[in-house]
Amino acid sequence: MKIITAEQFALEKDNTRQQSEHDIDQAVLEIIKEVRKNGDDALRRYTEKFDGVNIDKLIVTEEEFSEAGELVTSEFSSALQQAKQNISEFHQAQKEQSWFLNKSGGIMLGQKVTALEKVGVYIPGGKAAYPSSVLMNVIPAKLAGVEKIAIATPPQSNGKINPNVLVAAKEAGADIVYKLGGAQAIAALAYGTESVGKVAKIVGPGNAFVARAKKWVFGDVAIDMIAGPSEICIVADETAPPAYIAADLLSQAEHDESASSICITTNRDLAEDIKAEIDKQTAGLERKDIIKKSLELNGRIIIAKNLMAAFDIVNKLAPEHLQLMIQSPTENIQFIKHAGAIFLGNYSPEPLGDYFAGPNHTLPTNGTAAFSSPLGVYDFVKKSSIISYSEAALQNASESIINLANTEGLTAHANSIQVRRGESNA
C-alpha cells in the first residue's frame, strides 16, 4: 500500500477500470431487449448461461422457505433479530407524514405522502450471501408502507437461494423472492414477465452489470442509485491505533479488486505503522489475493499538512464511508460536507454500520455523496401537492394569475381564470 502526499494523490489518475462501460452497456442492452421480448424463457436461458443452473420455477416456494429456516443456526437467527430491531428503530424515525396548512381566506395547501405500491430489491448472490442487505433494503420499504416487496437474487449451484438470505427475507417482510440475478433480473423487475411482476422502483446493490442495467431502465422505473465499488476513507491522527486502522481498511479491500481503501493522516510515523500492520494482517486473511490487488490499485495512505487539509481531501472525495479516528471527532463533523456515512472514534468501525448499528448501509459511492443520501424510508414514498382555494380566494388572486399567464403568452391559462370571473374571451 503506497504512502503518498496530498499533492501526489491529486495528480493520480484512475486506472482501475477493468472493462469499459461501453462493453458492459452493449451486453446489458441486449439482455434487456431479450427479456422484454421473450420473458421467462429469456430469464431461464440467462440463468443457465451466467449462473450455471437450470431453473424451472423462478419463484421461491413456501417449502423452500421452511427448509431454509431449518438450515440456519440459532446464533444467526439471534443476530438477525438484533440487527432487525436496530435497523427498524433507526428508520422508524425517518417516516414522514402528510401535512396541511390552513391559511386565511379559504385557502388550504398541503403535501400528501403516499407509499410506492411495488418495489423490487436486488440482492447479490451466487457465491456469496448478503442477508444484511436484505434487512437494509426491505425494512425501510416495509416501514414506508410499500404494498408489495419483491426480492431478486441469484441461485446457488444447487438451484436454491442461500438459506440465510431466505430467512432474512421472511423476517424483514418481503412478499416474494425470485431466483434471478444480473441484468436479466433488473430487466424483469422493470418490465415484468409471465412470472415476475413489474415494480415501480428497483433498489439494492450489485455488480457493474446490475448497476448499468439500473441506469438503462431508469425512467421506465425509479432506482435508488447507480452504485460503484465500495469505498472507505479514514482520517487518523496519532491517537488512533494502527492495528485498528489497518483492519478497517482491509475490511473494505476484501469486497473486490475495485474497492477503494484510503487513509489520510498528518503523521508520517503513523502512516508507516499502518502500512506494516496491513502487511501483517493481510497474510492471515482468507481473501488476501483480492485484498492485495485492491490495495495495489486503490489503496493509499495520504500525508496531509494538517487536519483541515485532510478534511478538504475528504470533501473532494465524498466517500461512501468516512471514519474520523481523531481526537474530538464529534466537534469536527462540522468540517465534513460530503460523506455517505460518518463513523466517529476508534470504536465505531465501518462493519458496525454494515451489519448492526441501524443506519442504512446502502450508500452513495463514486463521489455521489456530494449530492446523494443513504437509502431510507423516504426512498419508498412519493409526495403530492395539495391545493384548495375557495371561490373568494381565487377571485382575490385572479388578477395576478391572469397577469403572469399573459406575460408568458399562455392565454388559455389566463382564460381558465377569466371563465371563473365571467370574463372569458374564448
UniProtKB/TrEMBL annotation:
A GO BP annotation: L-histidine biosynthetic process
Annotated family: Belongs to the histidinol dehydrogenase family.
UniProt name for this protein: Histidinol dehydrogenase
Record GO terms (molecular function): histidinol dehydrogenase activity; NAD binding; zinc ion binding
Functional description taken from the UniProt entry: Catalyzes the sequential NAD-dependent oxidations of L-histidinol to L-histidinaldehyde and then to L-histidine.
EC code: 1.1.1.23
EC class name: oxidoreductase
Record-level GO cellular component terms: cytosol
Domain of life: Bacteria
Keyword list, A-Z: Amino-acid biosynthesis, Histidine biosynthesis, Metal-binding, NAD, Oxidoreductase, Zinc
Binding site for Zn(2+): 252, 255, 354, 413
Catalytic reaction list: L-histidinol + 2 NAD(+) + H2O = L-histidine + 2 NADH + 3 H(+)
Binding site for NAD(+): 122, 184, 207
Active site (catalytic residues): 320-321
